[in-house]
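pinning this so it doesn't scroll away 📌
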Amino acid sequence: MNAKRFFLVVTAMLLVGLLVTFAPVAASPNPQVFYQTPTADADGRIFYVVREGDSCTTIFLLTGVPIETLRELNNLGAATKILTKL
């Protein structure tokens, strides 16, 4: 193999290596959301602070408080539409 051909092969291998090393990586299509399970205080009460994106269903799944009870405690009447994200 002559020097020119050797140089071209080595250069091509280096370029392929650089392209593979620095190629952009696609982000995960559905990033995971982590929720911290609330724990009871000394009186046995559980306080949950609603975060943006929470729904009655996610609060129910985290706390065990039925959706109907959440509606009553938060004055959400029968006409209030409950949207679930599950």
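📌 and the second one:
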Amino acid sequence: SISDDEKTTLKNELKIKIKNMFFHKIGGVLVLNTDYLLVSKFLNLSYVTIYGSYMMVFQVVTVLMSSFVNAITASVGNFLINQNDDEVTSIAKQFNTVFIALATFISLNMYFLVNDFITNWIGEKFILGNGIVILMLVNVFISVIRIPCDIFKNATGFFGDVYYPLLEGGSNLFFSALLAFYIGLPGIIIGTIISNVLITLIAKPLYLYGKMFGRFNALKKYLSFVLKPLIFSFVIFAVFYFAREQIIFFKASNWFDFMSKLTIVSLVSMIIVFAVFYADANFRSFVKRILRVVF
């Protein structure tokens, strides 16, 4: 049986974790709603509708990814319990590589398809410029590649980075408001990118991997997880961007054309992303792991 002292310790630990999770949720809500508030403050109401339409499309990805995270967190937690550092490092590399590949695939498809979707959905007058769409997709990309960190944080229970979500929301508000004053909507999105890079891509992973592998190993481990797959990703983006005029992706003016374009873009981007990332041993290991489970 559990002694009174052990019960007290468990209760205190549970209270701390609940409090920390609460701060994470509050920070998440703050980040999500800051941009909407700033768009309505610095721009006219038509931009709120246009920006909101794009965000609705992009948030479908976020919802699907959140469902996936919730589904596998317990399994990852059970796996980590009985593994040594080398095995944990291996699975962390695989997860980061696969989610960077997935983020690349999603971003490419969104780039070539989102304006056509908006046109068919609510009309061509609600289309944003190419540069603004790219900026928004940077945040979509970050929202996907952050998932391995969220999975491992939830699985290990390391919620001690309690002030990071609030700092993320505060920095997002500061940078977005400052830049919105000078350059409008692009400034709001760039402010969110800055906040995401500083907190989501740097501070949070370094905290988590510091807890998992030791503070002095955190940066080295993190770079070993993401550097190579990010290079692969940027090479793919560069090829598609500079070849976009030569690649025949017709304008889909109706839903039938859109579905045809969706099929073509998805197949082409999937083949290219898979072919490039298959050169990475961590990606190959993950694919083989999935195939063993399925077959």
